[in-house]
Structure formats: structure tokens, C-alpha cells
Amino acid sequence: MSPQPPSVSSAPGRSAAPLDDIDRQILAELLRDGRMSIRALAEQVHISRANAYTRIGRMVDDGVISGFTARLNPQRAGLSTSAYMTVTIEQNAWRHVSKALREIPYVENFALVGGDFDVLVMVRAPDNTALRHVVLERIQEVPGVRSTRTWLVFEESQGRGAVWDA
Q1: Is residue 147 part of a domain?
Q2: Does 46 reside within a domain?
């Protein structure tokens, strides 16, 4: 049997939903192919279709599965320039900065982190001109942003993601 992942709370006072080995197998299959039919999923995991529907429904209701989406190939979608940015912000500016970052085109994701800087941002843009605009004219102009550093991405690889050995 595989080791259990550590329990993670998604909100204060709210513990992670309990997942058994079958749930983890379902999640691993859906992460590999989110378009997999319930029938194929049930066959892969060796459960009935009704059981698969019930388990997926429970995981959606519990917030374990927060949605279903397509995975984009940035280069094929015309977003050939990528960069990670670190952002240092003023104390107590996170709410305002996070709201502003959500509105800036080409900001793929961002996270409040601990360490030498406060926010880690992934930007994907069509070219260096668009990236320059996002960095110098949008992100650096957000009130509360004190400084930024930018690292261009030359090549990316996909990790295993949030899957358990099932």
C-alpha cells in the first residue's frame, strides 16, 4: 500500500477530505486524461460506473476536484515567451496586489510565498514586447509593488503533478 499524503487544510478550521486508494486512483486517471469517460475510468480503476459517478460527485462536492479544464500548449497557442517573476510588495498590500494581478493579461498564475520575495508570478506572452509591457507597465505600476525580478524561461518540462502512486 502507498504512503498516505500529508493532510492539507484548504481553509482555516477545515481539514482535507479523506481519500482512500480508489479515490487516489480516480484522481490519477483524471489528471492523466480529464476527458476519460466514466465507463473507461471505472474499468481502469476496477469499480462500477455507479461507484465512479458517486466518488467523483463526492470529490466535487468536497472541493477535492475544483473543476475540469483543458491543458494549453503555450507555444501552439501563440504564447511563445514565458517568464517567472519574483515580486516584493509592501506589508499589507497582498489583497490589492493579488486583485490587480488577476486583471493583468498574460499573468498565468501567482502565489504568495515566504522567503526573499513575496510573490511568484508566471507570465506567458506572445513575444518579448508584450512581456516587457506586462512587467514594466503593468506589474511594476501596481500600487504596493516595491520591486520585481524576471527570469526568462528557455525550456519547460511537465512533472508528475499531484498524483499518488496508486
Answers
A1: yes
A2: yes
> What digits encode the pLDDT tens for the residues 100-149?
999 999 999 999 999 999 999 999 999 999 999 999 999 999 999 999 99
Specify if 50 maps to a domain: yes
Q: What is the pLDDT of residues 135-160, one digit of tens each?
A: 999 999 999 999 999 999 999 888 77
* Residue 30: inside a domain: yes
Give me the helices (H) in 33-140, please. 38-45, 49-61, 94-103, 128-132
Annotate 11-56 with three-state secondary structure. Answer: ECCECCCCCCHHHHHHHHHHHHCCCCCHHHHHHHHCCCHHHHHHHH
> How far apart (Å, rounded) are the C-alpha atoms in residues 68 and 75?
22
Contacts with 126 (C-beta within 8 Å, 6 or more apart), sequence order = 78, 79, 80, 81
